[in-house]
Specification:
This protein is of the alpha/beta class and 382 residues long. It folds into two domains: 61-128, no CATH class; 146-374, 4-Layer Sandwich (Purple Acid Phosphatase, chain A, domain 2), CATH 3.60.21.10. The chain is 39% helix and 14% strand. It has 14 helices and twelve strands. The protein is flat, with a radius of gyration of 25 Å.
Length: 382
């Protein structure tokens, strides 16, 4: 029997968008079809339930058999309805909406020996999904004697970074703390005009504080991908990557051809300092001080901190931005630009669109106090 392969369908991963992959398909005369991004086809509440079921039941752990997988569904459904607080109904459980009276039979869901065993298993799941206890009324704080300066997305605006650094120096001089740390939340490159100077400053200049921590953003990841594969140039251009090439004195590809992309890549590799590459490869994904966790984009609700995926830490928007989930820490993040810092009960977004607005924001944390320092440069066209 002879099997003839004419083509195939893949997801939209960057490897399938690469020039080498397209060239191989053309050489082999294969038709390549990429899948479209997932788009919900239901209303918001149904979609939220589906996504919650996927994360907390379907893909919550590695099941050995389909039978085991199916057996956990009624347990999870019970957990969802009877024990899981929902932010949309003021942290009450769905079953509470029924207003059951004391003599309603539905209240007897744990009365038999078998259901007591089920309840034991449910509580085990509860302990796995949620941290013990609830957030207290105490205000979140950083450790005593420590002052934290968290800086939002710079995106090539070296002028704003220098301006903000001077303001931080002045703040330290006016009232020196016992110890201080500066945390940069990622996205140092792309969109703005001087990514090269931003990287050089971050990796080589003397720290403003006692410690400097630089986190990884999605734009650093894309930059590293281009260094490894010039075939993603067109995708990178859509994210403002050509501004980064210009900052290194490199002419971006003028044509959508493999040759043009390769020429720009070769030119970049001739001028790109090895120290810049090592800096990009050394970036951390997250860091934590006291009751605050710092990350570029956010966290996936319902997933333990130690099990968060890098893709979510540097790319996620939803369901993180609209979630009322208690992550156990106040999440300080960037990635999603806004006109001003967005302060919520469970997160603080300090990306104020520096490349476009001329406003680079720094969140200052000390004890239980919060305040902001910002640049005041004039906005540029972007």
């Amino acid at each position: 029997m002879q099997v003839i392969f004419f083509g195939g369908i893949t997801d939209s991963g960057s490897c399938y968008k690469a020039g080498d992959f397209a060239k191989a398909c053309k050489t082999l005369k294969l038709k390549h079809i990429g899948t479209k991004p997932y788009t919900p086809k239901t209303n918001g509440k149904a979609e939220r339930f589906i996504q919650t079921a996927i994360r907390q039941w379907a893909y919550a752990r590695a099941y050995q058999t389909s039978k085991q997988h199916a057996a956990d569904l009624p347990l999870w459904t019970h957990l969802y309805n009877w024990h899981r607080p929902h932010s949309g109904i003021k942290d009450q459980t769905p079953i509470s909406r029924l207003g059951l009276t004391e003599d309603n039979l539905l209240r007897l869901h744990t009365s038999s020996r078998s259901t007591l065993s089920v309840t034991s298993r449910i509580m085990s799941i509860l302990n796995r999904l949620f941290r013990a206890g609830q957030r207290t009324n105490a205000k979140p704080a950083v450790p005593d004697g420590l002052r934290v300066y968290a800086i939002g997305d710079v995106h090539g605006r070296f002028d704003l970074l220098v301006e903000l650094a001077e303001k931080i120096r002045a703040d330290l001089a006016d009232d020196p703390p016992e110890k201080s740390v500066e945390i940069y939340l990622g996205d140092y490159v792309d969109r703005g005009p001087d990514a090269r100077s931003v990287i050089e400053w971050l990796r080589s200049r003397t720290c403003l504080c006692d410690e400097r921590i630089c986190l990884k953003g999605n734009h650093e990841e894309i930059f590293l991908q281009f260094i490894a594969d010039p075939g993603i140039a067109e995708y990178w251009r859509d994210l403002g990557g050509f501004e980064t090439l210009y900052s290194y004195g490199v002419q971006p590809p003028v044509a959508r051809t493999g040759e043009a992309m390769l020429a720009s890549h070769e030119q970049l590799m001739r001028v790109l300092p090895a120290e810049d590459v090592r800096f990009l490869q050394s970036l951390q994904l997250q860091t934590c001080f006291g009751d605050y966790l710092f990350v570029h984009a956010g966290l996936r609700p319902g997933v333990a901190l130690e099990k968060q995926l890098e893709e979510d830490l540097i790319w996620i928007r939803e369901p993180f931005l609209t979630s009322g989930h208690d992550f156990g820490k106040i999440v300080v993040h960037g990635h999603t630009p806004g006109d001003a810092p967005d302060i919520r009960a469970n997160r603080i977004n300090i990306d104020t669109g520096a490349f476009l607005t001329g406003c680079l924001t720094c969140l200052v944390l000390e004890g239980t106090g919060r305040r902001f320092i910002r640049s005041d440069a004039v906005a540029v066209n972007g």
